[in-house]
Write a structure and sequence with these properties.
Blueprint (H helix, E strand, L loop, with lengths): L2 E5 L3 E3 L4 E8 L6 E8 L6 E6 L6 E3 L7 E6 L4 E6 L8 E9 L15 E2 L3 E6 L1
Parallel strand pairs: 2-11
Antiparallel strand pairs: 1-3, 3-8, 4-5, 4-9, 5-6, 7-8, 9-10, 9-11
Length: about 130
C-alpha cells in the first residue's frame, strides 16, 4: 500500500511563491494519477491540479490557471505543485492524492476516485 507524504506548505505574503512536494513510500507515483486538492475551513475539498500517469495531460482549476504548475519527476518519485502569484484565496490545507488508473493519459478530478492521500500541508497567504 502506497503512503503519500505532502510537504512544502507555510505562511507567505500575497504575491509570493511556494512549491509543494508529494512523495511516496511503498509504490511508484507513475502508477497513479496524482492530484493536488485543497480544503479551506467550511469548504469542500477541491481539485486544483492533476496530472496523468505519463505526465502528458494535466488539469487546472480555473482559479489557479496560469499561476500553478503540476509536474512529475519519476526519478525522484515525486510530484510537485509550483504555486506562483499566491493570494489570500489560496489559503487552505493542500493534499496530494493518488488514483490507480491503467490508462497512462487519463486525468481525474473527483476526490471520490482517489485511493490514497497525504496528510496535508497548510498554506497560509496573508495580504
Amino acid at each position: 500500500q502506497v503512503q503519500l507524504e505532502d510537504s512544502g506548505g507555510r505562511s507567505v505574503q500575497a504575491g509570493g511563491s511556494l512549491r509543494l512536494t508529494c512523495t511516496a513510500n511503498g509504490g511508484e507515483l507513475n502508477n497513479y494519477v496524482i492530484g493536488w486538492f485543497r480544503q479551506a475551513p467550511g469548504q469542500e475539498r477541491e481539485c486544483v491540479a492533476a496530472i496523468s500517469r505519463n505526465g502528458d495531460d494535466s488539469y487546472y482549476a480555473n482559479s489557479v490557471k496560469g499561476r500553478f504548475t503540476i509536474s512529475r519527476d519519476d526519478a525522484m518519485n515525486a510530484v510537485y505543485l509550483q504555486m506562483n502569484g499566491l493570494n489570500p484565496d489560496d489559503t487552505a490545507v493542500y493534499f496530494c492524492g493518488a488514483d490507480r488508473r491503467l490508462s497512462l493519459s487519463v486525468v481525474t478530478t473527483n476526490s471520490n476516485d482517489y485511493d490514497y492521500w497525504g496528510q496535508g500541508t497548510r498554506v497560509t497567504v496573508s495580504s
